[in-house]
Design brief:
The chain is mostly helical and about 500 residues long. It contains 18 helices and no strands. It is a multi-pass membrane protein. Keywords: Membrane, Transmembrane, Transmembrane helix, Transport.
Length: about 500
């Protein structure tokens, strides 16, 4: 079948420019790499989102999301070690499940990377707007004098019209990617340290202030709704975004000493450390200032990002209404200055996450263009900066306008829909390749693959079902558009089409 034409793994390896990388990373380095990649917007921003969906039960949601990520990570690591090339899940799928499924995965990765970058941009703007609203610029101005007008602080459905700061930070990162500016390892290490210190300070202040009464009721939204979007499972589907980035560990398989031992340690270790941090942050936030959701007439939590939620939050100081929940919680506890510094930490650290997500998006589309599935113009390289400037600019504009117009919760759920599909396909791909090419060299082998991979697929499906209806609808529409594009262009222009295309 033409829709199932598979690009041989050896051809994928030959297409990519091969260089021998030295195996020098140990378990500790991999664990720290994973911690740095994972901790970001999710915990700084989506704590309020998770609280609105699940209340104090969001702590269970953190564990569920981490478990699904751990299972998917083990599957991801096997293919990453076999195919140490660019293109992420798209490339792996191309070599196992064929072009049609690879196209669907590559198209879905737009939701993971581009929309994910929009999530981070909106999260960054929330902390920046909060800092402007509370800062007195070291006593030079009155607090709030620097604040933007309300309609420029957030997008539609959340009380505003156009999120100006989210729009501007997206354009700034796009400019950096076009001219080829990259973060050095030293700068990245400093940013990771800032994030960890900020979360540690929050935990040290919030946890001692916990009151048991704030945990009642513990599951105000129950386990979930038949339509998804609320409850513990709905919160887990959203908070899944807080763990995205762990694949940085699996993609380092080629540079890892003793990968069969150190890759699992790095994956499980980094996810374990991040989960402990997240549980302590969730416990501190929910227990110190309360994270009870705002309920609708039916007694269930209002859906974040809805008009009803925006109206309920218009004059509310509740944590679940905050766009900068960690800083907001500290201010409610009487630590306004420290809360402002938490905001500064988020403002400094989050742009690097935007950059890496947009970088990932441009490289996936660059690879798809190189394979003939997208127009060749998208893989043009700038003569001076040597970057894929065309697709970078297009991606940057999409990210900028999405972040300017849409709320963080809707964007996060939509981003997760693409990620969950990619992880499920990678898990299936591991099992198929075990049957088709059992003797192929695997620097890392997924332990108990016939148990781990099916559980990973089940977990991805479970979280997908519990995404908001908006996210699922956007995913279906986006997939339909992708099928049309593939049939009209990629199907005929693919490098593997050959004589079979008609």
């Amino acid at each position: 079948m033409i829709f199932w034409r598979v690009k041989p793994l050896d051809q994928i390896l030959e297409t990519a420019e091969k260089k021998s990388l030295k195996r020098q990373l140990g378990a500790l380095q991999l664990t720290l790499l994973g911690v740095g990649a994972v901790i970001g917007t999710g915990i700084f921003v989506l704590t309020a989102e998770a609280g609105q969906k699940a209340g104090p039960g969001m702590m269970i949601a953190f564990v569920i999301a981490a478990t699904v990520c751990a299972l998917a990570a083990l599957a991801y690591a096997e293919l990453a070690s076999m195919l140490p090339v660019s293109g992420s899940a798209y490339t792996y799928t191309y070599g196992v499940l064929g072009e049609f499924i690879a196209w669907i995965v590559g198209w879905a990765l737009v939701l993971e990377y581009a929309i994910g970058a929009s999530v981070v941009s909106v999260g960054w703007s929330g902390y920046m707007n909060g800092l402007l609203a509370h800062s007195d610029l070291f006593g030079l101005v009155q607090p709030g004098a620097l604040a933007l007008p309300e309609f420029l602080r957030s997008g539609l459905y959340t009380g505003g019209t156009f999120n100006l700061l989210a729009f501007l930070i997206s354009l700034a990162v796009t400019f950096l990617l076009v001219i080829g500016t990259s973060k050095s390892a030293r700068v990245n290490s400093v940013l990771v340290a800032i994030k960890i210190v900020a979360l540690t300070v929050f935990i040290l202040i919030a946890v001692p202030a916990v009151k048991s009464s704030n945990f009642e009721p513990f599951l105000p939204g129950g386990w979930g709704s038949p339509l998804g979007g609320v409850g513990v499972l709905g919160a887990a589907a959203s908070i899944f975004f807080a763990y995205v980035g762990f694949d940085a560990v699996s993609t380092a398989a080629e540079e890892t000493k003793n990968p069969n031992r150190n890759i699992p340690i790095g994956l499980i270790g980094s996810l374990g450390i991040c989960t402990i941090f997240y549980l302590l942050v969730g416990y501190g936030a929910a227990g110190s200032v309360g994270a009870q959701p705002i309920l609708g007439p039916d007694g269930m939590p209002l859906e974040p990002g809805s008009d009803a939620m925006a109206a309920a939050c218009a004059a509310s100081e509740a944590l679940v209404c905050s766009k900068e929940p960690l800083a907001h919680a500290l201010r409610m506890l009487g630590f306004s200055s420290i809360g402002n510094w938490i905001g500064v930490a988020a403002i400094l650290a989050l742009p690097s996450v935007i950059l890496m997500m947009m970088f990932g998006q441009t490289r996936v589309f660059f690879t798809m263009s190189r394979d003939g599935l997208l127009p060749e113009a998208l893989s043009k390289v700038h003569p001076r900066f040597h970057t894929p400037h065309v697709i970078t600019i297009i991606t940057g504009l999409v990210v900028a306008f999405c972040s300017a117009l849409f709320p963080v919760g809707k964007l996060a759920d939509t981003s997760n829909s693409g990620t969950l599909l990619a992880f499920a396909m990678v898990s299936i791909g591991v099992l198929i390749l075990r049957k088709q090419q059992p003797d192929r060299k695997r620097p890392f082998r997924t332990p108990l693959a016939w148990l781990v991979c099916p559980l990973a697929v089940f977990g991805c499906v479970l979280l997908f079902v519990n995404l908001s209806m908006t996210a699922k609808l956007v995913f279906v529409i986006w997939a339909a558009i992708g099928l049309v594009v593939y049939r009209l262009y990629g199907y005929r222009r693919s490098q593997l089409a050959g004589a079979n295309a008609n």
